[in-house]
């Protein structure tokens, strides 16, 4: 362990030092989020000796929970348990937890002591040091806060070895920022020389890196604790970064990634003004590439970027303030002009947001994604936003081939909501791809529906065939994984199920069969508005599926891995993992076994008829989930597969990558 100042300790496996600093307090609150708590609360309990005065409180994980609504229950808890001015808060977590825990300490009874125990790289090198604590306002990041120095900061680099890669890269965004805050080249040389060790979580390299970054930040804090002058340089990259985080509603992009893009933005401004040359600019960009960090700004239209940048807390007198860097690595606060902001945005105009909408039999889904355009090729950079509305557009279409007016109205309501989201992200209709599948294509009044949607929302619907849907499913999936052998992709929809066989060379065979979760439910389990999941009905459905699946006989000639897409299969994961909040990252590329499906079906049959809640199951999907699960089990039985993989990348991705315009066959 090393003491690098009066209040900052750094080392490996040093949590037991906390006992030295909790002795003089009557109560101690360990404040964290649910993710970190699951990983480390047991470890903290083992290291703390005065267990009777230790209390624990967790909040949900994520920047979007860094608000007053989340912390009010913390105050309630502390009051109920008689926390006093002689009590202590220990913030155990990443940057969000450090900010929130510090803010609670600064405001509870006008201020109590707190200790920062940062678990993420970003928190260790940035959020835990300096005494800036804050929560977000709905309109702006870190708008409500205070300056309060922590009592102690305990940095254990062993925490970093359990960080997801995305979070580690986020921290590296702040680490690399520090390279621009000092003129000495030694730290930059160290980072370049030890890049592989750092990426492999070598303890010695991490200790050295974190210590140097802390000392750089601490130097700025010590000479300007209240950010009246030089400390403002720590905000390099943050004007654009905060605008981008707000644009993304504090979701899908980490703070460090946003800062990396913001540093590039500030470098481009400096280049425009002639403060740095092209060689400086390119070398700076290459530092981010060394750690595979996408530091290219995303294009925001004129009105949106000015709106968001004008809300930055660094601004004053109606001026947008940012940080410029010079060739000798000196720094200066500058006022940005509208013209130069637009010039930088125009340079990155090929990094854009696009949207796709899937109008299915049971649900409408929206995807907003960040893409880069390179000629005629589109590359997916990140998923920005997802939404799903259960609309049951295909209600009774299987019987009468007609879209009900009530079902159309439900779908219109969902699409109007999606249009509001498109407007929020400033995505024009021309950058929105909307397609409809089996319910629409099988209905005799589909033209009426398509025209009504166009007139009331401006959204143009492409009614696509089952074969086209299978193709864009494959295109979406193949953009996400490396295809080392043949894969058979299946998508259990509401009205049909698509199967596509292919590999990295392309598609070999595709077929769409008229078997879907809604259709199978209406055909076998729904009569006179009542559901009946009797053993006889399930046997009848299973026999019917065996006959229908014989249409897939040609696929039996191939050796392939099985991959499932969309709601039926993703729900199997969320139910198995008992997800209170759906986690796309956890679901994507998850392996499920036939035994998992059988257990889920048993759970559904036991609880759904009794209208009992099932953790991980969207209540609106309950009425068709059994039908979809029975189809899924039948597919596994037919292909004699004991397991399959789940992908979040499906037709929405395939469509947004231009799949509707590709020729198939």
Report the uncertain regions.
Answer: none
**Structural class by sheet pairing and helices:** alpha/beta
Q: Can you give the helix content as a percent range?
A: 40-55%
Side-by-side strand order of the widest sheet = 1-2-9-6-5-3-4
Distance between the termini: 65 Å
Mean pLDDT: 91
Inertia-based shape: globular
Q: Give the C-alpha Rg.
A: 27 Å
Q: Tell me the total number of β-strands.
A: 24
Question: How many helical stretches?
Answer: 26
Largest sheet: 7 strands, mixed
* Strand portion: 15-25%
Describe the overall structure.
The protein is of the alpha/beta class. Helix content is 43%, strand content 21%. The chain has 26 helices and 24 strands. A seven-stranded mixed β-sheet has the order 1-2-9-6-5-3-4. Helix 6 runs parallel beside helix 11 (255-272), helix 10 (238-247) packs across helix 13 (302-309) and helix 24 (594-607) runs antiparallel to helix 25. The longest helix has 21 residues, at 203-223. The model has no long low-confidence stretch (mean pLDDT 91).
List keywords for this structure.
26 helices, 21% strand, globular, alpha/beta, 665 residues, seven-stranded mixed β-sheet
Draw up the topology in text.
Layout: E1 2-3, E2 8-11, H1 18-22, E3 28-33, H2 34-47, E4 54-59, H3 68-80, E5 88-93, H4 95-107, E6 113-118, H5 121-127, E7 132-137, E8 140-147, E9 152-156, H6 165-179, H7 186-193, H8 195-199, H9 203-223, H10 238-247, H11 255-272, H12 278-290, H13 302-309, E10 321-325, E11 331-335, H14 338-347, E12 351-359, E13 363-374, E14 377-390, H15 397-400, H16 405-424, E15 432-436, H17 438-441, H18 446-457, E16 461-463, H19 466-478, E17 487-492, E18 497-503, E19 506-513, H20 517-524, E20 526-527, E21 530-531, H21 535-549, E22 561-565, H22 566-576, H23 584-587, E23 591-593, H24 594-607, H25 622-638, E24 643-647, H26 651-656
Helix pairs in contact: 4-5, 5-6, 5-9, 6-11, 10-11, 10-13, 11-12, 16-18, 20-25, 21-25, 22-25, 24-25
């Amino acid at each position: 362990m090393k003491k690098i100042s009066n209040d900052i300790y750094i080392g490996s496996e040093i949590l037991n030092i906390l006992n030295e600093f909790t002795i003089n307090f009557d109560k101690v609150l360990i404040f964290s989020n649910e993710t970190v708590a699951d990983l480390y609360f047991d470890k903290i309990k083992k290291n703390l000796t005065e267990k009777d005065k230790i209390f624990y409180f967790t909040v949900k994980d994520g920047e979007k929970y860094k608000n007053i609504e989340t912390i009010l229950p913390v105050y309630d808890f502390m009051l109920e348990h008689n926390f006093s001015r002689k009590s202590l808060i220990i913030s155990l977590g990443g940057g969000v937890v450090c900010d929130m825990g510090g803010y609670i300490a600064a405001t509870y009874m006008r201020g109590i002591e707190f200790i920062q125990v940062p678990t993420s790289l970003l928190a260790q090198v940035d959020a835990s040091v300096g005494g800036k604590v804050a929560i977000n306002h709905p309109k702006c990041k870190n708008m409500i806060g205070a300056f309060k120095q922590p009592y102690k900061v305990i940095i254990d680099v062993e925490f970093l070895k359990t960080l997801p890669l995305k979070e580690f890269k986020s921290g590296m965004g702040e680490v690399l920022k520090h390279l621009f805050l000092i003129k000495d080249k030694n730290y930059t040389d160290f980072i370049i020389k030890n890049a592989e060790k750092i990426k492999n979580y070598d303890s010695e390299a991490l200790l050295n890196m974190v210590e140097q970054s802390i000392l750089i930040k601490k130097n700025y804090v010590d000479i300007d604790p209240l950010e009246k002058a030089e400390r403002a340089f720590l905000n390099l990259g943050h004007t654009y970064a905060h605008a981008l985080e707000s644009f993304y509603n504090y979701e899908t992009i980490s703070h460090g990634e946003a800062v990396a893009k913001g540093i590039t933005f500030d470098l481009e401004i400096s280049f425009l003004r002639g403060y740095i040359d092209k060689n400086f600019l390119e070398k700076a960009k290459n530092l981010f590439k060394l750690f595979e960090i996408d530091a290219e700004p995303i294009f925001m239209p004129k009105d949106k970027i000015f709106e968001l940048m004008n809300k930055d807390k660094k601004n004053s007198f109606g001026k947008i303030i940012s940080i410029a860097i010079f060739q000798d690595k000196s720094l200066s606060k500058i006022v940005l002009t509208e013209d130069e902001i637009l010039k930088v945005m125009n340079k990155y105009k090929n990094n854009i947001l696009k949207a796709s909408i899937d109008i299915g039999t049971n649900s409408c889904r929206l995807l907003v994604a960040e893409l880069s355009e390179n000629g005629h090729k589109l590359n997916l950079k990140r998923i920005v936003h997802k939404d799903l509305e259960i609309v049951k557009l295909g209600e009774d279409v299987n019987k009468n081939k007609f879209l009900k007016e009530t079902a159309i109205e439900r779908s219109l309501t969902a699409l109007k909501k999606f249009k509001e989201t498109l407007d929020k992200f400033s995505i024009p209709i021309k950058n929105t791809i909307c397609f409809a599948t089996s319910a629409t294509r099988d209905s005799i009044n589909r033209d009426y529906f398509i025209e009504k949607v166009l007139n009331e929302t401006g959204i143009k619907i492409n009614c696509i065939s089952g074969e086209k849907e299978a193709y864009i499913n494959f295109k979406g999936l193949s953009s996400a994984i490396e295809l080392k052998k043949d894969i058979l992709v299946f998508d259990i929809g509401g009205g049909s199920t698509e199967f596509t066989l292919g590999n990295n060379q392309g598609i070999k065979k595709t077929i769409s069969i008229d078997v879907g979760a809604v259709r199978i439910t209406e055909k076998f389990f729904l009569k006179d508005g009542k559901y009946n999941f009797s053993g006889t009905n399930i046997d009848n459905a299973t026999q019917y599926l065996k006959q229908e699946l014989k249409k897939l006989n040609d696929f039996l000639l191939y050796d392939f891995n099985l991959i499932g897409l969309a709601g039926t299969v993703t729900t199997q994961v969320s139910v198995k993992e008992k997800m209170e909040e759906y986690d796309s990252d956890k679901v994507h590329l998850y392996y499920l076994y036939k035994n998992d499906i059988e257990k889920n079906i048993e759970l559904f049959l036991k609880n759904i008829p009794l209208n009992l809640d099932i953790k991980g199951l969207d209540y609106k999907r309950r009425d068709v989930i059994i039908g979809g699960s029975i189809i899924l089990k039948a597919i596994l039985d037919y292909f004699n597969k004991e397991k399959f993989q789940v992908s979040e990348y499906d037709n929405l991705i395939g469509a947004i990558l231009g799949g509707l315009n590709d020729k198939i066959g």
